[in-house]
Amino acid sequence: MLRLFRSCLKFVLPALLTLGATAALACTGITLRPGDGSVIFARTMEFGTDLQSNVIIIPRGYSFEGTAPGDKPGMRWKSEYGIVGTNAFDEPLVADGLNEKGLHVGVFYFPGFAKYQDVKPEDADRSLAPWELSTYLLGTCSSVDEAVEAANNVLVGEVVMKKMGFVPPLHLIATDATGKSVVFEHVDGNLTTHSNQIGVMTNSPQFDWHLTNLSNYVNLTAQNSEGMDLAGKQIEALGQGSGMLGLPGDFTPPSRFVRAVAYSKAALPVKTAKEGVLQAFHILNQFDIPKGAAMANEKGNEVADYTLWTSAADLTNLRHYFRTYENSQIRMVDLKQVDFDAKDIKTISMRGEEVIPDLSKTAK
């Protein structure tokens, strides 16, 4: 395991040094299935700087033009389905969102491994920039199967995002209202699609590597250890949680993947979608990164990766929930109440500070 991890670092570390302050290396996603048959996907978004995110509502029929390599015009499409999701840099594109058919797509960082497709000039009209693929899939697909077909019919090229100054290395997870989930990864110039039955997502390395790495933790259980007899001496566990002894607790992608699988699969069953949403936020509390816990030195400046926002999507009841670093109150947008026949994209601000009610005089 150590040898494999060191091999992974040999590829990942140069990418970290290159990306520096703009690196977002700690996003974590999980999937829950409450007893009422609903499907909940929830994730964190970490970054070293403020992404200036807001929730946007993209109406049906909204026109987009993609970007081909060399900042040339790419594929054009219209959004067939309405979308609610979180953007970045005030762009009309979704980093994490849900459409009115219950398809969710989330963008995660994939440094050191993302290598996009070669786009010839004659193929520019069916090409997209890496950060445009999620919005295209949400706008044109109603299920994971349709998303897989659509992703295989477009090209994603090496396009520099001007507001970042480099080609962002990304991979995506798509989940639909049936609970089916896939991961899209561009590696060595080819698109690979991984079936994701466990519904968990983090960052580098490739998704199948993370699945193999789970073999190192088959001993983990939510049940406390019963202790052991050691030469006639009974050795007891020290307190609760002894069944999870050895669970990695750091913020690296492999450790978060293992931890996300352990917590999401050990979570006690809940009955309703609302309970599932709340449970998802509680689980993701374990992945919340406060400023200062994950630091990098970028040209003499200390940069802190931190959890900008956490979101949850109820794919069954079509609701988008979120909270932010500045305000931990959970807020919600109901897709069934928004106007998807509007002419333009509408914005819901995610800004605002924490409100702490003073209950001093409410005692009875």
TrEMBL record:
Keyword Hydrolase: yes
Choloylglycine hydrolase/NAAA C-terminal domain mapped to chain residues: 27-347
An annotated Gene Ontology molecular function: penicillin amidase activity
CDD domains: Ntn_PVA
Domain of life where this protein originates: Bacteria
Transmembrane segments: none
Keywords: Hydrolase, Signal
SUPFAM superfamilies assigned: N-terminal nucleophile aminohydrolases (Ntn hydrolases) (SSF56235)
InterPro entries noted in UniProt: CBAH/NAAA_C, Ntn_hydrolases_N, Peptidase_C59
Stored Gene3D superfamilies: Penicillin V Acylase, Chain A (3.60.60.10)
Signal peptide interval: 1-26
EC number: 3.5.1.11
Family: Belongs to the peptidase C59 family.
Protein name (Swiss-Prot/TrEMBL): Penicillin acylase
